[in-house]
């Protein structure tokens, strides 16, 4: 089967915040259709659409109540079929979000399951008796705070939910559940969907003996290693591959929470017939203090060396087996320039710098809506955040457990809250950034007059055109897709530099990830080659790497040395 996904660049859409075609303040599928030419003009080949299925929207659609129909605010099934068609007409592909670690508690399966202990759907989910004292079956925590178990009066048992209590976890041990999942996948793939991003796929296999976590602190509930990589994980994925995926020329990317590179190889080694690639969290966790009761909100400063080490570990481990994803942003992560860079006076240079680091690497790049115009974190008072992860964490950490002050929590959310990625797409400098003619479901970022698509398209030096170039270079230079990766200057605290090599071609990428100037010295083995500039965010046309290069703040460049016989 062709490996088209290796040469593809993916554009991720969070539909409720992308473009609202009917003025209800909520993005929709017709809105996506209207903006397809924009995405095409960027050069992306694949669209990943976050969940659009029927849902009570407790977790913005990651709580699905019907996998076969589109949520009405997004449109109808016919709109979805039209979208698939319009994407294909433009020579692009579309992947959807497969959220099958859990359903909504309003899914018909769960409504049945909770009715009685002998209901035929009881085993679609995990139900357990309370401990002798009436407490939860074990000390597993929910990723959205509190216990992972909720008591249901009707049958006197607890059900399991890794996320909110409105997201009960499916029991993949039950063959009927797996059959349902394969059927719904087939339903959409037969209608033209080109693949799946698989939500928390790393958690579908549970440790069904439900062991308590051992804790050395006073945390009542723990989220840890039992929450992912359960004993039957790869068996289930292989079955899914056999039953469904192998029948289509599709693309698959698993959200593999809790995975290291060894686990990643298992998922993505083609000979194992599982998935094409996975999302790792390791490079996104470098600004989190590990093992804190405050979880992701316990921040530590950005360290370029940690970023280099982590990304290099993944580049190296998956060099000859498997495949990487490349991402800094998505709907769960804040804006990278606000998180690790400079989103003020050096915003443009900084956005281009991070883009260069990522798009020069080996793997499939993912661009999150707005990243291509350098959107920033928003400014909102705590009360204005909409995300349930933030609301629950506030209640637990600040109000109940008092492990964080309100001020520290506010600071952490201003950096890392998921809503920073979810503010409406900034199309122009008009009211609500041109996202909607009505009232947006979440306030537009106040900087929309300065940062928007219209402005980006009018400025030939914009971040948008820089992304367009990066994508174009990937299409023209196989070394960017297939070249072997090697880190340079590993201990340099400012510069992220590496080479890529493929069939006699060499690419050198160097990025100053700091606000100060930095001196770049190429290692001696690179000095024999003749280098041409492919890309520079400081408009350098020529670069002599034989001397030292005085790199400007957030300066980035990509130079290439062509195969000797092709240049002669
Ligand atoms: O995220 C899974 C996950 O473990 C984290 O990314 C988590 O949501 C959070 O960001 C931790 O801070 C996936 C989806 O991407 C996310 O939007 C959903 O809320 C979650 O699963 C539940 O479906």
From TrEMBL:
Family annotation (Gene3D superfamilies): Glycosidases, Golgi alpha-mannosidase II, Oligo-1,6-glucosidase, Domain 2
CDD domains, alphabetized: AmyAc_SI_OligoGlu_DGase
Catalytically driven reaction(s): Hydrolysis of (1->6)-alpha-D-glucosidic linkages in some oligosaccharides produced from starch and glycogen by alpha-amylase, and in isomaltose
Top-level EC class as recorded in UniProt: hydrolase
Assigned keywords, A-Z: Glycosidase, Hydrolase
Residue ranges the record marks as coiled coil: none
Residue stretches making up the Glycosyl hydrolase family 13 catalytic domain: 12-422
InterPro entries: GH (IPR017853), GH13_cat_dom (IPR006047), Glyco_hydro_b (IPR013780), Malt_amylase-like_C (IPR032091), O16G_dom_2 (IPR045857)
Family from the record: Belongs to the glycosyl hydrolase 13 family.
Protein name: oligo-1,6-glucosidase
Species classification: Bacteria, Bacillati, Bacillota, Bacilli, Bacillales
